[in-house]
Structures are given as structure tokens and as C-alpha cells.
Amino acid sequence: MGSSLVTGIDINNHSIKAVVLKPVGELYAVVGYKELPITDDIFTDNHTLEYQKTVKKLKELRKGLPFGCRHAAISVPDNTVISKVLQIESDLEDREKEFSIYQTFAHQSPFPIEELSLDFIKLDDKRFGNGSTTSYQVYATRKEVVESRSQALTKAGFRPVMVDTQAHGLLHIWQLATRLYPEKQSWIMIDIGVNQTSLGLIPQSGIPFFKDIAFGTQALYQAGHIGEHTTPFASAEQTQAFTVNLIERLKRQFQLYASANSLQALKGIWLMGEGAETPMLAGQLERHFQLACETLNPLALFENKASNKRYKGMDRHAFGIAAGIAVSGVKWQGVKHVASN
């Protein structure tokens, strides 16, 4: 069973979260999850990780996961990734297409191509390209961003199988939720973290909508106590101020969504992340935006193979990105990919 397990790992400034999944038919089962607080800054200025500090934390993390969890997928921040749609001649062989993608991307990249890790997927949307060309979505990030993560994982005893964006992690959870609740295809998912809030959905157009907001629950916590044992301020005034600030930021993003998706209005909001259960938040979002609003436990979207007793008291709302990254890893292992540099 160990070879089929994939651990999705999401690292940010205040904690490392991990979710272990295994495939069950076309779906997934969660077999374990873990969060470790981070007190030392493990990030450098260019989004790479401090090697020794990260390895130490990952080794500690692995000890708390089910036996046999070697394969791992890990997230990278979305602002470290360049994304472009390229048109490539349709009649090329696979290796020729790959060369053409690299060559075309090199002409448009702000960084030298030899400093980047690239991956790409074929787009089926007919609005891109024509009969003589095929469209590819290309993702690129600096090699040092990928290598700092993969090297730390390897040293800690994991076998890295893929690196993916936090956006893809969140959108995988959105897809699982809408598969379970097909009547909620027009709901947007909002992950409220400590330092960042992310929101996204995949509308009928097929073009994902995803945004990051540099705003989170940090204002609700006592200074110096961010981590596993946080102590929220009890002040209703501070909670209200946080909610008002969040609404203002969401309002701008919802307007952006509406301008690009006029035929599919938003009908609801799912909340997950550390701030999902902020007092009165769901109710105030409902009243302000006139949309249904519910908290979502992302781990409830999976078959449960984890011991409820072992994980009692953990905030399951906060594991959405890690769970989505684990889904990316499981899918990656089950599909042949042309490109992975």
C-alpha cells in the first residue's frame, strides 16, 4: 500500500501541513494528516527554503505520518510561477513539440530558459488555436525554487513526485466539492490563511479563476503566538474590523470575476482555512454579498481511513491546500506526462 500513498505538503511562514491520500477507484481516501508550527523563518527572500531548517522540520513531520509515506508532492507559491498559453504546430512529433514549446517560451520569458523548470499541458478549449496549431498551457518557475523543496524532501526521507502551485491545490478541492455537490458549480472557494487569502473556482468557460490576497487572520492572533497553539483575541471589535477588511478585498475580486464571467454569476461561498470559523464571518458574508455561505471541511470530501481519535481536536478546515496538492500527486502518478524538467 505504501507505494500508492502520496503526501501533499504545504509550507508557509507559520506551519507545515501534510495530508496523506491513497487512490480508491476514481476517488481518494485520507489516511493521515499533520501540522507542525514553524517558529524560525525557513524562507529566503527569493522563495527558496533554508535547507537545514526545512530538512529538520520535514523529518519531524514524517515521524507523525502513517508508515510507508515516501512519495510526496509539495506546493510552491503562485507568485513564483509564470503561466503562458502558447500556440504550437499540430503536426509535430512529441519531442519536436517539446522543443518548440521550450524555444517559444524562451523568447517570451523574463528569465534565461536554462534557469527555469518548465511543465506544460495541452488545452482542449477550441477558443485557443485553430486546426493547424495546438494550444499548450505552460508553467515555469526558477529551478532553485523547485530544487530547494525537492532536495529537502529527499534528505528528509521522502521521494518527491511533483511540485505544484497552491492554486491548483485549491482548485482540486473545488472540483471534488462540486463533484459531491453538483448543484454548487457556481460557488467560489475561499481559503483564509494566516497571512494570505486565496479564492477560486472553475466556471463553465473552463478558464480557472484564481486570486491571492495578501491578507489573513494574523490580525486576530496575539503577537508572537502564531502556530499550533494560537490564542485569538476575544475582542468582538477586532473580529468585526477583520471581517470588514476582508469583505472590501473580496468585493474587488468578485467584481473582477463578474467582468470576465457575466453569464455565470456567483451563487455561493465555501470557506476553508484557519479563518473559516471566524465568529459571525459566514453570516456577514451572506448578508453583504447576498450569497449562501458555508464552511467546508476539505478532508470530509475524501473517504476517511484516518483514526478520528488520533486526530481529535485538529482544525481540519486548514488542510485544504495540502489535500489538493496530494490530489495533484496521486493524479500525476496515474497519468503519463510528456514534460517534466
Automatic annotation (TrEMBL):
InterPro entries: FtsA/MreB, PilM. This is Pilus assembly protein PilM. The lineage of its organism: Bacteria, Pseudomonadati, Pseudomonadota, Gammaproteobacteria, Vibrionales.
